[in-house]
UniProtKB/TrEMBL annotation:
A single cellular component GO annotation: cytoplasm
Any single GO BP term: protein refolding
Keyword field contains Zinc: yes
PANTHER family to which the protein is assigned, alphabetical: 33 KDA CHAPERONIN
Origin species: Methylomonas lenta
Alphabetic keyword roster: Chaperone, Cytoplasm, Disulfide bond, Redox-active center, Zinc
Name the UniProt record assigns to this protein: Molecular chaperone Hsp33
GO MF entry, a single one: protein folding chaperone
CDD domains in the cross-refs: Hsp33
Domain of life: Bacteria
Keyword Disulfide bond in annotation: yes
Family annotation (NCBIfam families): PRK00114.1
Amino acid sequence: MNQQDCLIRFLFEELGVRGEWVRLEKSWQQAKQHQTLVNAAVESQLGQALAAVVLLSATIKFKGSMVMQIQGGGELKALVAQSTNERMIRGLVRSEVQVNGANLQQMIGEGGRLVLTVESENAQPYQGVVGLDQQDLAGALRTYFNQSEQLDTRLWLFANETCAAGLFIQELPGEHHDKSDWQHIEILANTVTEEEILTLDCEQLLHRLFHEEVVRLYEPEGVEFKCNCSRQKIGSTLAALGRSELEAILQERKTIEVDCQFCGEQYLFDKVDVENLLTNPDSIENDSSTRH
């Protein structure tokens, strides 16, 4: 499989440590094309978030989606990245026209927090929250895992205009692992450079970092951009506003236009559509009134 858009898991055979590697190229280009990226720093934060959510989604078994949200009161208002269990990704960013922070913590500002939500078809939704008290996303996620999983975990995340990539290592649960094994792998992994992680394939990177270790690689898993918005979902959101709110909007204009923040898809609802939404929500299907 082409390693331009894929996730690869790996295991240190003789040590109690597992890992993952991800690179996004085409999927990264598609995910960001509908976002307003005011500078390269904001672009990098979105790319890092997308790489991270793919890595995190591969750490658990579930059928559904994992959503990572970063919010605060700074110039970078919100950062959202989502991955399904099938590695379908999408993301969005909301910011001021100018974002001057040198790192994520400064961009997000006071009261920043990271929220991780797992929405699974066969289990109750799970949500974890951690304060954004680290300078970067990798540091915030390290804190999250230490608090929620109580497993030593490290991530290295990088993104530029052409590529987003990440490396993940985590100690395996169990009481029989030697802590020095983890420390040894962590020290080696921490030598990785931005250039290496953005340019080398998985095998090349692992060989460069861990050439003396026995590493088992698993089959690559493809990653692609895909938005799961639909006319029915948008319609349900509109219906929740209530009749008076929708009728007030329609008095000002002939149709209600709703754009998906993730992919730019535009959905149009006229008076007949709105009445159907309010009286028979299931009647609205994808049709010709959806405009790409």
